[in-house]
Amino acid sequence: MDLNANLKAEAIALGFADCRIAAAEPAPHYPHYLGWLEAGRHAGMDYLASPRAIMGRQSPQELLPGCRSVICLAWAFAPNPATPREAERPVGRIAAYATYPDYHHVLGEKLGQLADWLQKAAPGTVTKTCVDTSAILEKDYAQAAGLGWIGRNSLLAHPVYGSWILLGELLTDMPLEPDGPVEENHCAACLRCHMACPTKAILSERSIDANRCLSYLSIEHRGPIPVEFRALMGNRLFGCDTCQAICPDTPKTLPGADQFKPVLNPDQDLLEILAMDELAFKNRFGRTPVARAKLQGLRRNAAICLGNSRQTWLLPVLQEQLGEEMDSVVAEALTWAIQTLQESPKAA
Q1: Is 132 tagged catalytic?
Q2: Per-residue pLDDT tens for 4-40?
Q3: Which of 2, 116, 132, 267 is flagged as catalytic?
Q4: Which residue from 232, 182, 153 is spatially nearest to 18, judged by alpha carbons?
Q5: For helices 294-308 and 328-342, angle between their N-to-C axes, nearest 10 degrees
Q6: In this predicted model, what pLDDT tens digit does every residue of 211-222 receive, in sequence order?
Q7: I want to staple 290 with a disulfide (CB 3.0 to 4.6 A). Which of 43, 93, 262, 285 is the partner?
């Protein structure tokens, strides 16, 4: 077996679902990325428009001088099972990927182990590991390497795992033989994700307007959530899987995904979340992606989800919480939730 085959076998042994190789050429969609930034589609994620981010995404050589190959890896996870929307106490839904340990740490560790293997197999090789915090247009290289195609919802769709994958890259100065892109693209004329998006955040050129995206608003956005999107959140406490779950290519079984064990229930008690302090928040969510929302953001989201619950018995509970609330962002969300419940048909 040659180095490429051995490398891929090692990646699979480490737990990755797939491993393919792309040449370290300039990112094909780099001009599109610049246009996306200029249009303000990145919303409040100013770090995406920093000079470092803009330069880094132009070419892998900006991240690793002398880079010759981009080793693209997919890590599979299972979607959340469907559960009843109403319970005795209202619950909020967490996006599937966030019920698992923080993938930055998991993939970072596995990528480091693969880098160690490559450096032993080819002494003198220089590498750099990348998860999604690195300035690289990873879906461009994953598509070029044959891991899948970029779907209408802007996510990479793998032929076996659909979009239920996390991406990581290992940059190297080793000139590895690149794989070609996959020929299939099941999106074709399908518009299901575009039609299902609650806020119409999916754009025609297969990108997302973060200003409208419920994943962005419930995770990255700081401060009050725009009023026009609150009812559309439903019971989405953290993230939104709608465009993935609606995809007809969503696999019924994901071979190998069961090795990545969830650590959170996807349905979280909203009143518990609203009552959390920093210690309770860190104890439950500190080692998961949910920590990204911060306590204020998650409590804000919980208040909005409670307002959307139409369970009017919550009114005195929320009014009492509002009277004691010290956080202005959460207090504003509670005020909205109380008004929404008071106007609910169940209140009549």
Answers
A1: yes
A2: 999 999 999 999 999 999 999 999 999 999 999 999 9
A3: 132
A4: 182
A5: 10
A6: 999 999 999 999
A7: 285
